[in-house]
């Protein structure tokens, strides 16, 4: 897929909506959607898992816009403004979820935000999909990413249901000393620099890192496996507002 959809400015316009009762939400790193057949493969897997909203990292699509597929899914995407096909984030909405979409905002190649109406007229559900710089990236690049992400989070009302998800490229580990309000003890491995940045960000914004709360088999914790199947990392995360009282489960 090349340039398509609406412009960055047009894509931020609100969309007529109606509330829905429940959603199945997931986030995947797909490595690329900039190849023939990749989008069809993605939506096939999305249907197989019966997902209503799918966050996607590393689309490698450029610019920002929206596209309705022949199969009915709506893709909202945000990428680089020039012709370098790298990074890129998106949200894929099944027809069921499209009914509740209120609006969305692209924020470059690493952040996209969507807002949905809930059954409560005074509360929305906001989803921020991210693709963070790797642990090897320069500190300046990491700082710029988290500064922009904070600007996005600052716009979200605290009373809303806020979800932060995607490829954070952050190892949060098992040790949660100092982070017990937002981090469980069931992570994988040890916290790295990106993990510390991400944990501090979630602590400041009162976002619970969901993948660390409940015990799982090791095979179910890893979200990235090296090509030789030797190294496993848990670097993709799903975080929810602390006001949902998830800390009582930890």
Automatic annotation (TrEMBL):
| Domain Endonuclease/exonuclease/phosphatase residue range list | 26-171
- What are the entry keywords? Endonuclease, Hydrolase, Nuclease
Task: Please name the InterPro entries in this protein's record.
Answer: Endo/exonu/phosph_ase_sf, Endo/exonuclease/phosphatase, Swc5/CFDP1/2
The answer to whether the entry has keyword Hydrolase is: yes
Cite the Pfam families for this sequence: Exo_endo_phos
Q: Superkingdom of this entry's organism?
A: Eukaryota
Q: Does the keyword Hydrolase apply?
A: yes
Output the Gene Ontology terms for molecular function. Answer: endonuclease activity
User: By its UniProt entry, which SUPFAM superfamilies does this protein fall under?
Assistant: DNase I-like
PANTHER family found in the cross-reference section? BUCENTAUR RELATED, CRANIOFACIAL DEVELOPMENT PROTEIN 2-LIKE
Q: What is this protein called?
A: Endonuclease-reverse transcriptase
Q: Upper lineage ranks?
A: Eukaryota, Metazoa, Spiralia, Lophotrochozoa, Mollusca
């Amino acid at each position: 897929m090349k340039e398509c959809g609406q412009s960055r400015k047009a894509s931020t316009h609100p969309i007529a909506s109606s509330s829905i009762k429940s959603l199945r939400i997931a986030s995947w790193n797909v490595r690329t959607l900039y190849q023939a057949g990749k989008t069809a493969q993605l939506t096939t897997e999305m249907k197989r898992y019966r997902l209503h909203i799918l966050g996607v990292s590393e689309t490698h699509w450029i610019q920002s816009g929206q596209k309705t597929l022949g199969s009915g899914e709506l893709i909202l995407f945000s990428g680089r403004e020039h012709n370098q096909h790298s990074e890129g984030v998106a949200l894929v909405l099944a027809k069921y979820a499209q009914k509740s979409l209120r609006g969305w905002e692209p924020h470059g190649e690493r952040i996209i935000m969507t807002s949905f109406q809930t059954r409560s007229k005074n509360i929305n559900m906001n989803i921020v999909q991210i693709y963070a710089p790797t642990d090897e990236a320069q500190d300046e690049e990491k700082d710029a990413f988290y500064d922009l992400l904070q600007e996005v989070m600052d716009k979200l009302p605290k009373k809303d249901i806020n979800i932060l998800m995607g490829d954070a490229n952050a190892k949060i580990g098992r040790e949660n000393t100092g982070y017990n309000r937002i981090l469980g003890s069931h992570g994988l491995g040890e916290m790295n620099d990106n993990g510390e940045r991400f944990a501090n960000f979630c602590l400041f914004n009162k976002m619970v890192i969901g993948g660390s709360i409940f015990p799982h088999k090791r095979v179910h914790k890893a979200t990235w496996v090296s090509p030789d199947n030797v190294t496993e990392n848990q670097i993709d995360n799903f975080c929810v507002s602390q006001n949902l009282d998830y800390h009582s489960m930890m």
